[in-house]
Here is the input.
Amino acid sequence: MDAIDQNILNILQRNARETVKQMAEECFISSPSVSVRLQNLENQGYISSYQAILDYQKIGFAIKAYIHCAVNAKDKEAFYGYIEEIPNVVECDCITGDYSMMLKVYFNNTVELDEFINQLQRFGDTKTNVVFSTRVAARGLQLDHEELANKKIK
Here is the structure.
């Protein structure tokens, strides 16, 4: 991956609807070159999808929470199968510490959140943090070709 590829990825993280022509102008290369690079970045797995970032509160999901779950290793597959069927779970990470999983969830209200937590507790202890506000929303990492090159050397 070179500096142009990184620039393309930075542009896409900022706005995935940017046209190939606009990316070409910003990268100082031709549109066909951008198209080839995009295809290569997709094929190599650098780009896994293109998604819209929604405002869940405006849609009616007033409650955003992080739920920590202490799931036993023997129950992980059943746990994964369960949460994959719950559309309110937008992210699940396997973590270190007192809890083995962390879920990011959205619900319409605290009653729905409480019902979900009650179901989760069959897999182990839980701890829930409800988000009051978000100062820095999810954003992409700014890629810097020089910085990445230096990290590879170390």
Notes: The chain has two domains: 3-51, 56-130. The mean pLDDT is 92.
